[in-house]
């Protein structure tokens, strides 16, 4: 089925006159008549019927027109989007850990938009119930252009670029025995019930590695997906937690204790698929993020 014939059909359906429609389309009337008859022959039904000097849609033509215009509109929208992307404009699909959406990502986005004031650039953002594993899967499925997350080993398809740091601390309820301390070693946490992160969290392998270094295992009370939720459980007395020092901790009934041994900083990364095409607007944003990360490598999300 010829795409031009579909556009000819749509135009004639609205103009309802062969000569006038041909003029608008900048083709001859015989060419338009041939296109419509070819289309009708291919479909096996009449799309138009005569109405004096004009033509009107048949019942089948009216149904077909709705579908044709929906397809043409979607095609035109897609073509326009691709043309914008080719010019360094368009939409960027970004997935990110919620903790990075408090300050880090909005700051980066605002700076990028300010650096490109004449371009039409927008962002589709994905963070609801998104963990590092979800982000990486979304990148592989090409749902996202970029992800901001932790790094997971054995991901050969993914490029990880460090962009921010965040320290790990131990959070305890305000009335907990450890709350009397100003700082703790990981050994100090062993006697107490702990909230830990589920294995699919990017934090889990980091914290497991810290316990392996001291030859101990935590006494697990609950396994939680997200650091905000873990903090909420700690504030209500369900255990203590080795967690990132995120802003929400300041508003909860917890004591934040620096982890002095073994100390650790959580790194955050910009993740992208390797060896695949990224449109100019995505490449421009990637370059901007790298430049900003180099300037502010000591940035902490807290």
TrEMBL record:
The entry's keywords: DNA-binding, Transcription, Transcription regulation
Any GO molecular function: DNA binding
Pfam family, one: LysR_substrate
The keyword Transcription is annotated on this UniProt entry: yes
Annotated ranges, domain HTH lysR-type: 1-58
Top-rank taxon, per record: Bacteria
GO CC term, one of those recorded: protein-DNA complex
Claim: DNA-binding is one of the keywords in the record: yes
Family the UniProt entry places it in: Belongs to the LysR transcriptional regulatory family.
Protein name: HTH-type transcriptional regulator BenM
Source taxonomy: Bacteria, Bacillati, Bacillota, Clostridia, Lachnospirales
């Amino acid at each position: 089925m010829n795409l031009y014939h579909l556009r000819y059909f749509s135009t004639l359906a609205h103009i309802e006159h062969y000569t006038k429609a041909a003029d608008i389309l900048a083709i001859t009337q015989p060419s338009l008549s041939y296109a419509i008859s070819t289309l009708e022959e291919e479909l096996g039904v009449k799309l138009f019927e005569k109405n004096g000097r004009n033509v009107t849609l048949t019942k089948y033509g009216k149904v077909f027109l709705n579908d044709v215009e929906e397809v043409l509109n979607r095609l035109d929208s897609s073509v326009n989007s691709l043309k914008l992307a080719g010019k360094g404009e368009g939409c960027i699909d970004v997935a990110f850990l919620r903790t990075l959406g408090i300050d880090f990502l909005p700051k980066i986005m605002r700076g990028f938009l300010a650096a490109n004031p004449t371009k039409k650039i927008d962002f589709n953002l994905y963070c609801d119930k998104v963990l590092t594993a979800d982000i990486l899967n979304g990148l592989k499925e090409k749902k996202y252009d970029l992800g901001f997350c932790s790094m997971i080993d054995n991901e050969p398809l993914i490029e990880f670029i460090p962009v921010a740091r965040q320290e790990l601390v131990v959070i305890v309820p305000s009335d907990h025995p450890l709350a009397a301390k100003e700082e703790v070693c990981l050994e100090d946490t062993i006697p107490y019930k702990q909230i830990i992160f589920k294995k699919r969290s990017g934090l889990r392998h980091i914290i497991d590695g810290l316990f392996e270094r001291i030859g101990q295992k935590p006494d697990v009370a609950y396994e939680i997906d997200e650091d905000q939720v873990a903090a909420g459980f700690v504030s209500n007395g369900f255990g203590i937690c080795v967690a990132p020092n995120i802003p929400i901790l300041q508003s909860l009934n917890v004591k934040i204790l620096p982890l002095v041994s073994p100390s650790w900083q959580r790194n955050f990364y910009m993740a992208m698929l390797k060896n695949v095409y990224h449109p100019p607007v995505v490449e421009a944003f990637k370059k901007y993020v790298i430049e900003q990360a180099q300037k502010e490598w000591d940035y902490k999300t807290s």
